[in-house]
Design goal:
Layout lengths: L1 H58 L2 H14 L3 H28 L1 H9 L5 H8 L2 H17 L3 H23 L6 H33 L10 H37 L3 H20 L3 H19 L3 H38 L3 H9 L3 H16 L3 H26 L1 H26 L12
């Protein structure tokens, strides 16, 4: 009963904080779209695509590695081992974070000119490079608090980080001439870099206070670094491949839309309207599910260490049933409210079409979030990344071959294909891992 109450409490806290941050983020996205336009949003999404790959390298699976390693130590009753695991993860994160920073900063011109094909991204990429070590180190501390189930203070830190980012973005954009897309994107990137640095310092202070206020129990852990490498490196290698393919796909989309016959501005506008606007609305109701998926990792890991497989089956079945119901209701509501949402949030009717087209995909997307959390909690993280790599590889081929011929219709088809392909493979794996003959006995957690 105590574990259930703790899970519910953490879910409520993280959901509330995530909901607040999503509201702030959506309002910020609307305001930003008004400042720099859909073409500017599209350019910023390209920067984020490249930066996303660099962040994947900087993190290199360390957040999940930290959560898994700390959860294992706590499952054995050793807080000493948990704290030792965190410091090993810090060394790991620092090495990858600094390497990613040096590479992106030194190669920003090559990436911007030759890979992205837009010189206006170079400045933003260099600024983003400075952010990478802080992102990697913050991932370690976030993984620790997730594993421990003490999520209130880091949730507050993340909220402060977002408020700082929004404030700094507004200040920086005020100093830039309106319509200057290059420097506008650089301002948004700089605000994110500064806020991430401040967030890490606050998170570090919270972590040190947490360590000194909880008693040390258990014995010193052994082979922590080999265990960390065994968890994180396979995940990292898979993440590099998947992120690289995803980045390639995102860079190809505007190019292939231009090959279909769109102008450069039209291609960026469509890309920005779908990825930067419509998906923001579509993914907004998923905040509670992303929290649950994150909290499932340590919960299922501890149950697995304790050998409680029947309980694992019950938890997975219950959550999937509730997720499908919730996502279906949200999809119907957004489908019929698309015009109102587009007009009142983005002050335009252009986004309503994309919201309505993507709304039926929500049950699949939301269910996949929970399935992914279940699989990672059961140690199937490498398999998950393998599926993601396969999905991304197929998507790149589809973008390259279909977009020049079918344009927007092909773009939407690929979005549906990606989500359904990933979900079907993932749910099949979860059914196999948890023994489907026992999954009918679903009870609330």
């Amino acid at each position: 009963m105590q574990n259930r109450s703790k899970f519910v409490y953490n879910t409520v806290i993280l959901t509330a904080s995530d909901l607040v941050m999503r509201c702030i983020g959506m309002a910020f996205q609307v305001w930003l779209a008004g400042c720099i336009g859909s073409a500017g949003i599209g350019l910023f999404q390209l920067v984020m695509s490249v930066g996303g790959f660099a962040m994947t390298f900087a993190i290199s699976g360390v957040r999940f590695g930290t959560t898994r390693l700390v959860s294992e130590e706590l499952g054995r009753g050793s807080t000493r081992g948990a704290v030792s695991a965190v410091w090993r993860c810090v060394v790991y994160a620092l090495g990858f974070g600094l390497t990613a920073c040096a590479f992106l900063f030194s190669k920003a011109e090559v990436i911007g000119f030759l890979w992205v094909g837009d010189a206006r991204t170079v400045l933003s990429l260099r600024i983003m490079a400075l952010e990478l070590p802080f992102v990697a180190l913050s991932s370690v501390l976030s993984g620790y608090f997730t594993a421990c189930g003490r999520v209130t203070k880091p949730a507050i830190v993340h909220l402060l980080e977002q408020l700082l980012c929004v404030t700094l973005t507004a200040i920086f954009l005020f100093l830039v001439p309106k319509g200057d897309v290059e420097y506008s994107c650089a301002c948004v990137t700089l605000a994110g870099t500064v806020s991430d640095a401040v967030s890490f310092l606050l998170m570090l202070a919270v972590f040190l206070h947490d360590v000194h206020t909880h008693p040390r129990t258990g014995t010193k852990a052994e082979r922590l670094m080999p265990r960390l490498l065994g968890i994180s490196l396979p995940l990292a290698i898979s993440a590099y491949t998947r992120s690289g393919l995803s980045t390639l796909q995102n860079m190809l989309i505007p190019t292939q839309l231009r090959a279909f016959g769109m102008t450069a501005a039209q291609a960026l506008s469509v890309y920005g309207a779908i990825h930067g606007m419509a998906f923001t609305v579509i993914c907004f109701p998923a905040c509670i599910l992303q929290v649950v998926a994150e909290l499932l990792v340590p919960k299922l890991t501890e149950l697995q260490v304790q050998g409680r497989m029947e309980r694992i089956r019950q938890v997975c079945a219950f959550l999937l049933a509730k997720t499908l119901l919730y996502a279906s209701v949200a999809a119907v509501a957004l489908f019929f409210a698309a015009d109102w949402v587009s007009e009142h949030i983005y002050k335009t009717d252009d986004v309503a079409f994309y919201i309505r087209v993507l709304a039926p995909l929500m049950p699949v997307m939301f269910s996949d979030i929970v399935v992914d959390g279940c699989l990672k909690g059961l140690g199937e993280h490498v398999w998950c990344m393998g599926v993601n790599i396969l999905e991304s590889a197929v998507s790149v081929v589809l973008v390259y071959t279909l977009l020049p011929r079918l344009g927007l219709a092909a773009f939407i088809f690929i979005l549906y294909f990606d989500e359904m392909f990933n979900f079907l493979l993932s749910i099949s794996r979860l059914v196999q891992v948890t023994k489907p003959e026992s999954m009918s006995a679903a009870v609330p957690i």
